[in-house]
Design goal:
The protein has 199 residues and is mainly alpha-helical. Helices cover 54% and strands 6% of the residues. It contains 8 helices and 5 strands.
Length: 199
Amino acid sequence: MNKSTITFFLFVMIISIGQSGCSVDAGNAEVLVTKVHTEKYWRPSDDLKTFIKTMENKPLLDGETELVEYDDVGHIAKGYGTKAYLFTEEGNSKEAERIMVYKLLEANGFIDKYVTHKLNIHERNVLVSLIYNVGRDGFRNSSAFKALNKGDIKEFKRQAFDPKVGFVCADGKYNKGLINRRAHELVMWEEGAYEVYGR
């Protein structure tokens, strides 16, 4: 078992303990959660989790489909857009949420390490959603990332969310689902509104 796999299962165990209502020592909490500018520990809110689930796999969220593997534009996914190999053979909806939360925390860790622009909670949640969707490397190598760290928010929003130049393509083609997601993330960024419409 390699280091990244061990780290992943530590996250899953910690998340499970937290969800059970047990206390967790945050003294050495780099693997538990990452700090935001307010010096509070960031955790994905229920609103953000519901948003991610709705965007990634609404039928699973609504209980209309089983937890199965599916093609997610270049990789085999399971649950809420996460890679299938992360699941145990007895995977279920609770495990799907734990893995999703682990990946959201991972995205937040990237923000803490590389994003220099100060964010409010809704802006941070949008970046977490965006990185969860396009990947850390995809975001780090983008014009949107560069604009954000320069403080050019107008250009960041154009490069990230615009239906023509934003993160809206899959396999080199415009994707209606991604255009819709970017539109929702823009509203979340500007208004802090997490409601999903048109799905």
